[in-house]
Automatic annotation (TrEMBL):
This is Peptidoglycan D,D-transpeptidase FtsI. It comes from Thermomonas beijingensis. The active site is at S309 (acyl-ester intermediate). The keyword Ribonucleoprotein does not apply. It holds the Pfam family PBP_dimer. InterPro entries: Beta-lactam/transpept, Beta-lactam/transpept-like, FtsI_transpept, PBP_dimer, PBP_dimer_sf, PCN-bd_Tpept. Catalyzes cross-linking of the peptidoglycan cell wall at the division septum.
Length: 615
Protein backbone atom coordinates (compact mmCIF):
# COMPACT_ATOMS: atom_id res chain seq x y z
CA UNK A 1 0.00 0.00 0.00
CA UNK A 2 1.35 3.39 -1.03
CA UNK A 3 2.48 5.51 1.81
CA UNK A 4 1.00 8.92 1.92
CA UNK A 5 3.17 11.79 3.11
CA UNK A 6 0.96 13.67 5.47
CA UNK A 7 3.51 16.40 6.27
CA UNK A 8 2.58 19.86 5.24
CA UNK A 9 3.69 21.11 1.89
CA UNK A 10 5.75 23.86 3.45
CA UNK A 11 7.75 21.22 5.34
CA UNK A 12 8.67 19.36 2.12
CA UNK A 13 9.72 22.57 0.51
CA UNK A 14 11.99 23.33 3.49
CA UNK A 15 13.60 19.89 3.31
CA UNK A 16 14.34 20.33 -0.34
CA UNK A 17 15.85 23.70 0.42
CA UNK A 18 18.08 22.24 3.13
CA UNK A 19 19.32 19.58 0.77
CA UNK A 20 20.13 22.23 -1.80
CA UNK A 21 22.01 24.32 0.76
CA UNK A 22 24.04 21.30 1.89
CA UNK A 23 25.04 20.56 -1.66
CA UNK A 24 25.97 24.19 -2.20
CA UNK A 25 28.13 24.21 0.95
CA UNK A 26 29.86 21.06 -0.21
CA UNK A 27 30.65 22.64 -3.55
CA UNK A 28 32.01 25.72 -1.81
CA UNK A 29 34.15 23.65 0.46
CA UNK A 30 35.43 21.64 -2.48
CA UNK A 31 36.12 24.87 -4.35
CA UNK A 32 37.93 26.26 -1.33
CA UNK A 33 40.02 23.15 -0.94
CA UNK A 34 40.81 23.03 -4.62
CA UNK A 35 41.70 26.72 -4.58
CA UNK A 36 44.01 26.17 -1.58
CA UNK A 37 45.62 23.19 -3.24
CA UNK A 38 45.98 25.17 -6.43
CA UNK A 39 47.59 28.06 -4.58
CA UNK A 40 49.88 25.66 -2.74
CA UNK A 41 50.90 24.10 -6.03
CA UNK A 42 51.59 27.53 -7.48
CA UNK A 43 53.61 28.38 -4.40
CA UNK A 44 55.60 25.18 -4.68
CA UNK A 45 56.21 25.87 -8.34
CA UNK A 46 57.28 29.43 -7.52
CA UNK A 47 59.56 28.14 -4.77
CA UNK A 48 61.04 25.60 -7.12
CA UNK A 49 61.54 28.30 -9.74
CA UNK A 50 63.21 30.48 -7.13
CA UNK A 51 65.51 27.67 -6.01
CA UNK A 52 66.33 26.31 -9.43
CA UNK A 53 66.50 29.48 -11.52
CA UNK A 54 66.33 32.79 -9.72
CA UNK A 55 68.46 32.13 -6.62
CA UNK A 56 70.23 29.06 -7.94
CA UNK A 57 73.76 30.42 -7.28
CA UNK A 58 73.05 31.30 -3.66
CA UNK A 59 71.61 27.92 -2.78
CA UNK A 60 74.27 26.12 -4.77
CA UNK A 61 76.89 27.92 -2.70
CA UNK A 62 75.10 26.94 0.45
CA UNK A 63 75.06 23.31 -0.61
CA UNK A 64 78.65 23.41 -1.74
CA UNK A 65 79.67 24.95 1.57
CA UNK A 66 78.54 21.76 3.27
CA UNK A 67 80.14 19.25 0.95
CA UNK A 68 82.40 21.00 -1.64
CA UNK A 69 85.90 22.02 -0.53
CA UNK A 70 88.89 23.71 -2.15
CA UNK A 71 91.97 21.88 -0.88
CA UNK A 72 95.61 22.95 -1.32
CA UNK A 73 97.92 20.72 -3.35
CA UNK A 74 101.31 20.65 -1.66
CA UNK A 75 104.34 21.41 -3.80
CA UNK A 76 108.01 20.72 -3.26
CA UNK A 77 110.59 23.35 -2.42
CA UNK A 78 113.40 23.78 -4.94
CA UNK A 79 116.50 21.68 -4.45
CA UNK A 80 119.78 23.32 -3.42
CA UNK A 81 122.94 21.84 -4.94
CA UNK A 82 126.64 22.58 -4.75
CA UNK A 83 128.55 23.86 -7.77
CA UNK A 84 128.95 20.29 -9.08
CA UNK A 85 125.29 19.33 -8.75
CA UNK A 86 125.61 17.44 -5.46
CA UNK A 87 122.37 17.81 -3.43
CA UNK A 88 122.65 19.95 -0.31
CA UNK A 89 118.95 20.43 0.48
CA UNK A 90 116.04 18.40 -0.86
CA UNK A 91 112.32 18.11 -0.12
CA UNK A 92 110.87 14.68 0.62
CA UNK A 93 107.12 13.87 0.55
CA UNK A 94 105.58 13.22 3.98
CA UNK A 95 102.08 12.96 5.42
CA UNK A 96 100.30 15.05 8.04
CA UNK A 97 97.44 13.63 10.10
CA UNK A 98 94.49 15.95 10.69
CA UNK A 99 91.01 15.60 12.13
CA UNK A 100 87.55 17.13 12.05
CA UNK A 101 86.92 17.73 15.79
CA UNK A 102 83.15 17.87 15.32
CA UNK A 103 83.11 14.39 13.84
CA UNK A 104 85.87 12.86 15.95
CA UNK A 105 84.34 13.95 19.28
CA UNK A 106 81.22 11.97 18.40
CA UNK A 107 83.32 8.81 18.92
CA UNK A 108 85.06 9.39 22.26
CA UNK A 109 85.63 5.65 22.67
CA UNK A 110 88.11 5.77 19.77
CA UNK A 111 90.32 8.45 21.31
CA UNK A 112 92.56 6.06 23.34
CA UNK A 113 93.49 4.07 20.23
CA UNK A 114 94.12 7.27 18.27
CA UNK A 115 96.27 8.77 21.02
CA UNK A 116 98.36 5.60 21.19
CA UNK A 117 98.86 5.58 17.41
CA UNK A 118 99.85 9.25 17.46
CA UNK A 119 102.23 8.70 20.34
CA UNK A 120 100.70 11.38 22.54
CA UNK A 121 98.88 11.35 25.90
CA UNK A 122 95.14 10.88 25.64
CA UNK A 123 94.51 13.93 27.84
CA UNK A 124 96.54 16.11 25.50
CA UNK A 125 94.64 14.84 22.47
CA UNK A 126 91.27 15.38 24.16
CA UNK A 127 92.21 18.90 25.17
CA UNK A 128 93.39 19.78 21.68
CA UNK A 129 90.11 18.56 20.19
CA UNK A 130 87.87 20.16 22.82
CA UNK A 131 89.47 23.59 22.43
CA UNK A 132 88.70 23.38 18.71
CA UNK A 133 85.36 21.61 18.96
CA UNK A 134 83.64 24.21 16.78
CA UNK A 135 86.13 23.86 13.92
CA UNK A 136 86.37 21.40 11.08
CA UNK A 137 90.16 21.10 10.85
CA UNK A 138 93.02 20.59 13.29
CA UNK A 139 96.47 19.07 12.79
CA UNK A 140 97.19 16.07 15.01
CA UNK A 141 100.69 15.16 13.81
CA UNK A 142 102.62 16.77 10.99
CA UNK A 143 105.29 15.66 8.54
CA UNK A 144 105.50 11.99 9.42
CA UNK A 145 106.60 8.97 7.43
CA UNK A 146 103.91 7.80 4.96
CA UNK A 147 104.04 4.30 6.46
CA UNK A 148 103.29 5.66 9.91
CA UNK A 149 100.41 7.71 8.50
CA UNK A 150 99.01 4.60 6.79
CA UNK A 151 99.00 2.73 10.12
CA UNK A 152 97.02 5.54 11.75
CA UNK A 153 94.51 5.73 8.91
CA UNK A 154 94.09 1.94 9.01
CA UNK A 155 92.28 2.36 12.34
CA UNK A 156 89.40 3.94 10.35
CA UNK A 157 88.55 6.41 13.09
CA UNK A 158 85.76 8.79 12.00
CA UNK A 159 86.94 12.33 11.27
CA UNK A 160 90.65 11.43 10.91
CA UNK A 161 92.42 11.91 7.57
CA UNK A 162 95.82 12.81 6.12
CA UNK A 163 97.24 15.19 3.56
CA UNK A 164 100.48 15.33 1.57
CA UNK A 165 103.21 17.78 2.62
CA UNK A 166 106.97 18.09 2.10
CA UNK A 167 109.81 18.05 4.58
CA UNK A 168 113.27 19.56 4.02
CA UNK A 169 116.21 17.20 4.33
CA UNK A 170 119.89 18.15 4.45
CA UNK A 171 122.14 15.26 3.33
CA UNK A 172 125.34 16.97 4.54
CA UNK A 173 124.06 17.41 8.08
CA UNK A 174 125.99 19.81 10.29
CA UNK A 175 128.70 20.44 7.68
CA UNK A 176 126.76 23.28 6.01
CA UNK A 177 124.22 23.99 8.72
CA UNK A 178 124.81 27.72 9.26
CA UNK A 179 125.24 28.45 5.55
CA UNK A 180 122.08 26.70 4.37
CA UNK A 181 119.96 27.49 7.42
CA UNK A 182 116.67 25.62 7.71
CA UNK A 183 112.94 25.86 7.06
CA UNK A 184 109.89 26.04 9.32
CA UNK A 185 107.28 23.34 9.68
CA UNK A 186 105.41 25.11 6.88
CA UNK A 187 108.51 24.78 4.65
CA UNK A 188 109.41 28.47 4.67
CA UNK A 189 113.03 29.59 4.97
CA UNK A 190 113.99 30.66 8.48
CA UNK A 191 117.74 31.30 8.39
CA UNK A 192 120.72 31.21 6.07
CA UNK A 193 120.39 30.83 2.34
CA UNK A 194 117.02 29.12 2.81
CA UNK A 195 115.80 32.50 4.03
CA UNK A 196 117.79 34.63 1.57
CA UNK A 197 116.39 32.75 -1.44
CA UNK A 198 113.01 31.80 0.02
CA UNK A 199 111.00 33.37 -2.80
CA UNK A 200 113.12 31.60 -5.42
CA UNK A 201 112.97 28.20 -3.72
CA UNK A 202 109.31 28.28 -2.66
CA UNK A 203 106.85 26.72 -5.05
CA UNK A 204 103.26 27.80 -5.66
CA UNK A 205 100.74 25.39 -4.07
CA UNK A 206 97.98 24.14 -6.30
CA UNK A 207 94.24 24.00 -5.51
CA UNK A 208 91.79 21.18 -6.19
CA UNK A 209 88.02 21.10 -5.64
CA UNK A 210 86.59 17.99 -3.99
CA UNK A 211 83.38 16.70 -2.46
CA UNK A 212 83.60 15.45 1.09
CA UNK A 213 81.07 13.38 2.99
CA UNK A 214 79.90 14.12 6.52
CA UNK A 215 82.93 12.27 7.89
CA UNK A 216 85.38 14.47 6.04
CA UNK A 217 86.35 11.80 3.54
CA UNK A 218 86.91 12.78 -0.09
CA UNK A 219 84.34 11.03 -2.24
CA UNK A 220 84.98 12.81 -5.52
CA UNK A 221 87.60 15.07 -7.13
CA UNK A 222 85.56 17.69 -8.89
CA UNK A 223 88.04 20.03 -10.51
CA UNK A 224 91.71 21.10 -10.64
CA UNK A 225 91.49 24.80 -9.89
CA UNK A 226 95.23 25.51 -10.12
CA UNK A 227 98.14 23.18 -10.82
CA UNK A 228 100.98 23.13 -8.30
CA UNK A 229 104.26 24.76 -9.38
CA UNK A 230 107.42 23.35 -7.71
CA UNK A 231 110.15 25.69 -6.48
CA UNK A 232 113.17 26.50 -8.61
CA UNK A 233 116.54 24.85 -8.13
CA UNK A 234 119.42 26.86 -6.66
CA UNK A 235 123.04 26.08 -7.54
CA UNK A 236 125.48 27.40 -4.96
CA UNK A 237 129.14 28.31 -5.40
CA UNK A 238 129.96 25.93 -2.54
CA UNK A 239 132.14 22.95 -3.42
CA UNK A 240 131.03 20.09 -1.21
CA UNK A 241 134.50 18.50 -1.23
CA UNK A 242 136.31 21.64 -0.15
CA UNK A 243 133.56 22.30 2.37
CA UNK A 244 134.17 18.87 3.89
CA UNK A 245 137.92 19.50 4.17
CA UNK A 246 137.37 22.91 5.76
CA UNK A 247 134.81 21.58 8.21
CA UNK A 248 136.94 18.60 9.21
CA UNK A 249 140.13 20.58 9.77
CA UNK A 250 138.44 23.36 11.72
CA UNK A 251 136.64 20.80 13.90
CA UNK A 252 139.95 19.10 14.65
CA UNK A 253 141.58 22.42 15.50
CA UNK A 254 138.78 23.41 17.87
CA UNK A 255 139.12 20.05 19.61
CA UNK A 256 142.92 20.17 19.85
CA UNK A 257 143.18 23.78 21.02
CA UNK A 258 140.18 23.75 23.36
CA UNK A 259 138.81 26.85 21.64
CA UNK A 260 135.32 28.18 22.34
CA UNK A 261 134.43 28.66 18.66
CA UNK A 262 135.88 29.13 15.22
CA UNK A 263 135.17 30.08 11.62
CA UNK A 264 136.76 29.45 8.24
CA UNK A 265 136.09 30.87 4.76
CA UNK A 266 137.47 29.82 1.37
CA UNK A 267 136.99 32.10 -1.65
CA UNK A 268 137.72 31.62 -5.33
CA UNK A 269 140.15 34.47 -5.97
CA UNK A 270 139.21 34.98 -9.62
CA UNK A 271 135.44 35.23 -9.07
CA UNK A 272 134.82 35.98 -5.39
CA UNK A 273 132.63 32.88 -5.09
CA UNK A 274 132.40 31.25 -1.68
CA UNK A 275 133.77 27.73 -2.06
CA UNK A 276 133.52 26.82 1.62
CA UNK A 277 132.33 28.38 4.86
CA UNK A 278 132.06 26.62 8.20
CA UNK A 279 131.66 27.44 11.87
CA UNK A 280 131.86 25.80 15.28
CA UNK A 281 129.87 25.09 17.32
CA UNK A 282 127.41 23.79 14.77
CA UNK A 283 124.10 21.89 14.73
CA UNK A 284 122.14 19.28 12.81
CA UNK A 285 119.62 21.08 10.54
CA UNK A 286 117.59 17.86 10.30
CA UNK A 287 116.82 18.15 14.03
CA UNK A 288 116.81 21.89 14.68
CA UNK A 289 114.67 21.72 17.81
CA UNK A 290 117.34 19.85 19.76
CA UNK A 291 120.13 22.36 19.05
CA UNK A 292 121.06 25.49 21.03
CA UNK A 293 120.10 28.75 19.38
CA UNK A 294 123.66 30.08 19.60
CA UNK A 295 124.90 27.32 17.29
CA UNK A 296 122.67 28.57 14.45
CA UNK A 297 124.76 31.71 13.92
CA UNK A 298 126.98 31.93 10.84
CA UNK A 299 129.91 33.49 12.70
CA UNK A 300 131.96 34.00 9.54
CA UNK A 301 129.41 36.57 8.38
CA UNK A 302 127.72 37.91 11.51
CA UNK A 303 130.41 38.04 14.23
CA UNK A 304 132.61 41.12 14.53
CA UNK A 305 136.23 40.61 15.55
CA UNK A 306 139.26 42.87 15.74
CA UNK A 307 141.43 41.61 12.86
CA UNK A 308 144.80 41.88 14.61
CA UNK A 309 147.91 41.52 12.48
CA UNK A 310 145.97 40.47 9.38
CA UNK A 311 145.70 44.25 8.90
CA UNK A 312 149.46 44.72 8.38
CA UNK A 313 149.59 43.76 4.67
CA UNK A 314 146.75 46.21 4.04
CA UNK A 315 148.62 48.94 5.93
CA UNK A 316 151.79 48.24 3.93
CA UNK A 317 149.81 48.28 0.67
CA UNK A 318 148.39 51.69 1.63
CA UNK A 319 151.92 52.99 2.23
CA UNK A 320 153.17 51.63 -1.10
CA UNK A 321 150.26 53.17 -2.99
CA UNK A 322 150.76 56.55 -1.34
CA UNK A 323 154.43 56.44 -2.26
CA UNK A 324 155.59 57.03 1.31
CA UNK A 325 157.47 53.70 1.45
CA UNK A 326 159.07 51.17 -0.90
CA UNK A 327 159.78 47.48 -0.39
CA UNK A 328 163.35 48.46 0.55
CA UNK A 329 162.47 51.16 3.09
CA UNK A 330 164.15 50.53 6.45
CA UNK A 331 162.45 51.01 9.84
CA UNK A 332 164.18 51.05 13.20
CA UNK A 333 161.87 49.20 15.57
CA UNK A 334 164.27 49.33 18.54
CA UNK A 335 163.85 48.97 21.45
CA UNK A 336 160.79 46.90 20.56
CA UNK A 337 158.19 49.49 21.40
CA UNK A 338 156.96 52.92 20.36
CA UNK A 339 154.84 55.50 22.15
CA UNK A 340 151.18 55.86 21.24
CA UNK A 341 149.86 58.76 23.30
CA UNK A 342 150.03 57.69 26.92
CA UNK A 343 150.20 54.03 25.82
CA UNK A 344 152.83 51.87 24.16
CA UNK A 345 152.78 49.82 21.01
CA UNK A 346 155.04 46.82 21.57
CA UNK A 347 156.47 43.87 19.68
CA UNK A 348 157.03 40.41 21.12
CA UNK A 349 160.79 40.94 20.50
CA UNK A 350 163.13 43.78 19.65
CA UNK A 351 163.55 43.22 15.94
CA UNK A 352 165.88 46.18 15.42
CA UNK A 353 166.02 47.47 11.87
CA UNK A 354 163.49 45.89 9.51
CA UNK A 355 162.74 46.54 5.88
CA UNK A 356 159.12 46.67 4.69
CA UNK A 357 159.06 42.95 4.03
CA UNK A 358 160.47 42.29 7.49
CA UNK A 359 157.52 44.13 9.06
CA UNK A 360 155.18 41.54 7.57
CA UNK A 361 157.50 38.56 8.04
CA UNK A 362 158.08 39.29 11.74
CA UNK A 363 154.60 40.78 12.27
CA UNK A 364 155.99 43.94 13.85
CA UNK A 365 153.41 46.20 15.48
CA UNK A 366 156.02 48.92 15.75
CA UNK A 367 156.87 48.65 12.05
CA UNK A 368 153.20 48.89 11.03
CA UNK A 369 152.82 51.94 13.28
CA UNK A 370 155.79 53.64 11.59
CA UNK A 371 154.20 53.02 8.18
CA UNK A 372 150.87 54.48 9.33
CA UNK A 373 152.63 57.59 10.69
CA UNK A 374 153.66 58.44 7.13
CA UNK A 375 150.04 58.32 5.93
CA UNK A 376 147.46 61.04 6.41
CA UNK A 377 144.22 60.15 8.12
CA UNK A 378 142.39 60.58 4.82
CA UNK A 379 144.80 58.32 2.94
CA UNK A 380 144.54 55.54 5.49
CA UNK A 381 140.75 55.85 5.87
CA UNK A 382 140.02 55.91 2.14
CA UNK A 383 142.30 52.97 1.43
CA UNK A 384 140.71 50.72 4.03
CA UNK A 385 137.20 51.62 2.95
CA UNK A 386 138.12 50.83 -0.64
CA UNK A 387 138.96 47.29 0.52
CA UNK A 388 135.54 46.96 2.14
CA UNK A 389 136.31 47.64 5.79
CA UNK A 390 133.44 49.37 7.55
CA UNK A 391 130.76 48.25 5.07
CA UNK A 392 128.89 45.11 4.14
CA UNK A 393 130.41 42.84 1.52
CA UNK A 394 126.91 42.65 -0.05
CA UNK A 395 127.10 38.88 -0.22
CA UNK A 396 123.33 38.73 0.30
CA UNK A 397 123.58 36.55 3.39
CA UNK A 398 120.87 37.39 5.96
CA UNK A 399 122.14 39.26 9.01
CA UNK A 400 125.55 40.06 7.54
CA UNK A 401 127.44 42.53 9.71
CA UNK A 402 128.95 45.63 8.13
CA UNK A 403 131.78 45.94 10.61
CA UNK A 404 132.87 48.88 12.73
CA UNK A 405 135.30 51.38 11.25
CA UNK A 406 134.79 54.92 12.57
CA UNK A 407 135.19 57.98 10.39
CA UNK A 408 138.43 59.99 10.90
CA UNK A 409 136.61 62.80 12.72
CA UNK A 410 135.88 60.26 15.47
CA UNK A 411 139.44 59.01 15.77
CA UNK A 412 141.41 59.75 18.88
CA UNK A 413 145.10 60.54 18.81
CA UNK A 414 145.93 56.83 19.05
CA UNK A 415 143.36 55.41 16.64
CA UNK A 416 145.28 55.34 13.37
CA UNK A 417 148.30 53.73 14.98
CA UNK A 418 146.33 50.96 16.67
CA UNK A 419 144.26 50.34 13.53
CA UNK A 420 147.44 49.86 11.50
CA UNK A 421 148.00 46.56 13.30
CA UNK A 422 144.36 45.56 13.70
CA UNK A 423 142.89 47.13 16.83
CA UNK A 424 140.20 49.81 17.10
CA UNK A 425 138.10 48.44 14.24
CA UNK A 426 136.00 45.29 13.83
CA UNK A 427 135.45 43.09 10.80
CA UNK A 428 134.03 39.70 9.89
CA UNK A 429 136.13 36.77 8.66
CA UNK A 430 134.37 37.13 5.30
CA UNK A 431 135.55 40.75 5.02
CA UNK A 432 139.16 39.71 5.66
CA UNK A 433 138.88 36.97 3.03
CA UNK A 434 137.40 39.44 0.53
CA UNK A 435 140.24 41.93 1.06
CA UNK A 436 142.90 39.23 0.73
CA UNK A 437 141.26 37.84 -2.41
CA UNK A 438 141.58 41.33 -3.92
CA UNK A 439 145.34 41.26 -3.21
CA UNK A 440 145.55 37.85 -4.89
CA UNK A 441 143.47 39.02 -7.86
CA UNK A 442 145.89 41.76 -8.86
CA UNK A 443 144.00 44.48 -7.00
CA UNK A 444 140.55 43.59 -8.37
CA UNK A 445 137.89 43.17 -5.69
CA UNK A 446 134.82 40.99 -6.21
CA UNK A 447 131.85 41.01 -3.90
CA UNK A 448 131.65 37.54 -2.35
CA UNK A 449 128.87 35.42 -3.81
CA UNK A 450 127.12 32.24 -2.70
CA UNK A 451 125.61 31.55 -6.15
CA UNK A 452 127.55 29.85 -8.93
CA UNK A 453 128.29 31.92 -12.03
CA UNK A 454 126.48 34.98 -10.71
CA UNK A 455 127.24 38.18 -12.62
CA UNK A 456 129.80 39.81 -10.36
CA UNK A 457 132.04 42.39 -12.08
CA UNK A 458 135.10 43.43 -10.04
CA UNK A 459 136.31 46.90 -9.19
CA UNK A 460 139.94 47.93 -9.03
CA UNK A 461 141.07 48.86 -5.54
CA UNK A 462 144.86 48.58 -5.94
CA UNK A 463 147.49 48.72 -8.66
CA UNK A 464 148.41 45.25 -9.92
CA UNK A 465 152.16 45.68 -9.38
CA UNK A 466 151.66 46.78 -5.77
CA UNK A 467 149.37 43.79 -5.16
CA UNK A 468 152.13 41.44 -6.43
CA UNK A 469 154.73 43.17 -4.25
CA UNK A 470 152.59 42.69 -1.15
CA UNK A 471 152.03 39.01 -2.03
CA UNK A 472 155.77 38.43 -2.23
CA UNK A 473 156.19 40.03 1.17
CA UNK A 474 153.45 37.82 2.58
CA UNK A 475 155.17 34.77 1.11
CA UNK A 476 158.02 35.19 3.61
CA UNK A 477 155.55 34.65 6.49
CA UNK A 478 155.30 30.92 5.69
CA UNK A 479 159.01 30.49 4.95
CA UNK A 480 161.77 29.88 7.51
CA UNK A 481 161.99 32.88 9.81
CA UNK A 482 158.32 33.79 9.35
CA UNK A 483 155.51 33.50 11.90
CA UNK A 484 153.49 30.80 10.07
CA UNK A 485 155.82 28.04 8.92
CA UNK A 486 153.10 25.57 9.94
CA UNK A 487 150.96 26.98 7.11
CA UNK A 488 153.55 26.12 4.43
CA UNK A 489 152.47 23.65 1.73
CA UNK A 490 155.03 21.44 0.04
CA UNK A 491 155.34 22.30 -3.66
CA UNK A 492 153.53 25.62 -3.41
CA UNK A 493 154.46 29.17 -2.49
CA UNK A 494 151.99 30.39 0.15
CA UNK A 495 151.31 34.06 0.88
CA UNK A 496 149.77 34.62 4.25
CA UNK A 497 149.59 36.56 7.46
CA UNK A 498 149.06 35.49 11.02
CA UNK A 499 147.06 37.44 13.54
CA UNK A 500 146.73 37.17 17.29
CA UNK A 501 144.37 39.71 18.82
CA UNK A 502 143.46 40.10 22.45
CA UNK A 503 139.74 40.02 23.18
CA UNK A 504 138.14 43.21 24.43
CA UNK A 505 136.69 43.24 27.93
CA UNK A 506 135.23 45.86 30.22
CA UNK A 507 137.72 48.70 30.50
CA UNK A 508 140.35 47.25 28.16
CA UNK A 509 141.61 43.91 26.90
CA UNK A 510 141.64 40.51 28.57
CA UNK A 511 144.21 37.73 28.44
CA UNK A 512 142.02 35.82 26.02
CA UNK A 513 142.84 35.71 22.33
CA UNK A 514 141.65 35.12 18.79
CA UNK A 515 144.15 33.38 16.52
CA UNK A 516 143.99 34.08 12.78
CA UNK A 517 145.61 32.95 9.62
CA UNK A 518 144.72 34.52 6.27
CA UNK A 519 146.43 33.26 3.15
CA UNK A 520 146.53 32.82 -0.61
CA UNK A 521 147.87 29.95 -2.70
CA UNK A 522 149.68 29.54 -5.03
CA UNK A 523 151.46 32.90 -5.01
CA UNK A 524 152.24 33.04 -8.73
CA UNK A 525 148.58 32.72 -9.73
CA UNK A 526 146.45 32.66 -6.57
CA UNK A 527 143.50 30.30 -6.81
CA UNK A 528 142.21 30.28 -3.24
CA UNK A 529 141.94 32.82 -0.44
CA UNK A 530 141.27 31.38 2.99
CA UNK A 531 140.75 32.88 6.43
CA UNK A 532 140.72 30.87 9.65
CA UNK A 533 139.70 32.36 13.01
CA UNK A 534 140.06 30.34 16.22
CA UNK A 535 138.32 32.05 19.12
CA UNK A 536 139.57 31.75 22.70
CA UNK A 537 141.97 28.78 22.44
CA UNK A 538 143.28 27.23 25.65
CA UNK A 539 146.88 28.53 26.02
CA UNK A 540 147.87 25.42 28.00
CA UNK A 541 147.35 23.16 24.98
CA UNK A 542 148.92 24.46 21.79
CA UNK A 543 149.19 28.13 22.71
CA UNK A 544 147.16 30.92 21.22
CA UNK A 545 149.24 32.43 18.38
CA UNK A 546 147.52 32.42 15.01
CA UNK A 547 150.38 30.63 13.25
CA UNK A 548 150.05 27.70 15.67
CA UNK A 549 146.29 27.35 16.13
CA UNK A 550 145.01 28.54 12.72
CA UNK A 551 147.93 28.00 10.33
CA UNK A 552 147.63 24.18 10.30
CA UNK A 553 143.94 24.41 9.37
CA UNK A 554 144.91 26.45 6.31
CA UNK A 555 147.67 24.03 5.32
CA UNK A 556 145.61 20.83 5.64
CA UNK A 557 142.57 22.31 3.89
CA UNK A 558 144.50 23.85 1.03
CA UNK A 559 146.60 20.73 0.44
CA UNK A 560 143.39 18.83 -0.26
CA UNK A 561 141.78 21.64 -2.26
CA UNK A 562 144.80 22.07 -4.52
CA UNK A 563 144.82 18.35 -5.31
CA UNK A 564 141.07 18.28 -5.92
CA UNK A 565 141.22 21.20 -8.32
CA UNK A 566 144.42 20.00 -10.06
CA UNK A 567 146.28 23.23 -9.35
CA UNK A 568 149.85 22.91 -10.59
CA UNK A 569 152.65 23.41 -8.03
CA UNK A 570 154.65 26.62 -8.29
CA UNK A 571 157.52 25.56 -5.99
CA UNK A 572 158.84 22.34 -7.51
CA UNK A 573 162.35 23.00 -6.19
CA UNK A 574 161.19 22.38 -2.63
CA UNK A 575 159.16 19.36 -3.67
CA UNK A 576 162.10 17.78 -5.55
CA UNK A 577 164.42 18.46 -2.62
CA UNK A 578 162.09 16.58 -0.29
CA UNK A 579 161.82 13.72 -2.77
CA UNK A 580 165.63 13.56 -3.05
CA UNK A 581 165.98 13.46 0.71
CA UNK A 582 163.37 10.74 1.02
CA UNK A 583 165.04 8.67 -1.69
CA UNK A 584 168.42 9.04 -0.03
CA UNK A 585 166.96 7.97 3.29
CA UNK A 586 165.38 4.88 1.73
CA UNK A 587 168.64 4.00 -0.03
CA UNK A 588 170.61 4.37 3.20
CA UNK A 589 168.15 2.18 5.07
CA UNK A 590 168.56 -0.46 2.35
CA UNK A 591 172.36 -0.33 2.70
CA UNK A 592 173.03 1.17 -0.70
CA UNK A 593 174.86 4.31 -1.60
CA UNK A 594 172.58 7.30 -2.11
CA UNK A 595 172.18 8.03 -5.81
CA UNK A 596 173.22 11.37 -7.21
CA UNK A 597 169.96 13.18 -7.92
CA UNK A 598 169.93 16.46 -9.73
CA UNK A 599 167.24 18.85 -8.59
CA UNK A 600 166.77 21.05 -11.56
CA UNK A 601 164.37 23.95 -11.17
CA UNK A 602 161.64 23.66 -13.81
CA UNK A 603 160.28 26.48 -15.89
CA UNK A 604 157.17 26.62 -13.69
CA UNK A 605 159.00 28.30 -10.80
CA UNK A 606 158.25 31.84 -9.72
CA UNK A 607 158.82 34.61 -12.26
CA UNK A 608 158.25 37.58 -9.94
CA UNK A 609 161.26 39.27 -8.29
CA UNK A 610 161.86 38.70 -4.58
CA UNK A 611 160.76 41.76 -2.57
CA UNK A 612 162.95 43.89 -0.37
CA UNK A 613 166.12 42.01 -1.16
CA UNK A 614 164.82 38.94 0.70
CA UNK A 615 166.11 35.78 -0.95
Amino acid sequence: MKRVDKRPRWFAWGARRERGNAQSDLRKRLLLVCSFLGLASVGLLARALNLQVINHAFYQEQGDARFLRDLPIATSRGMITDRNGEPLAISSPVESIWANPRELLKSPARLPALAQALGMPQDELAQRLSTRAGKEFVYLKRRINPDEAARILALEIPGVASQREYRRFYPQGEMLAQVLGFTSIDDRGQEGLELAFDDWLSGTPGVKRVIRDNKGRIVENVDLVRAAQPGRELTLSIDRRIQYLTHRELRNAISETGAASGSAVVLDVATGEVLAMTNFPTFNPNAVGSSPRDAHRNRAVTDLLEPGSTMKPITVAAGLEAGVITPQTLFNTSPGWIANGKYRTTDTHNYGVLDTTGIIRKSSNVGASLVAKRLTDAQFNNFLRRFGYGSSTHSGFPGEAAGLFPQPDRWSGTSKQTMSYGYGLSVTPLQIATAYAALGNGGLLHQPSFVKDQHNPPKRVLDENIAHEVLRMMQTVTEPGGTATQAAILGYHVAGKTGTSRKASAGGYSRRYIGYFAGLVPVDHPRFAMVVAVNDPDPSRKGYYGGVVAGPVFRSTMEGALRLMDVAPDNLDAWLAVQDAAEAKRAKAAGHAAPQLASVAPAATSKLPAPGGVQ
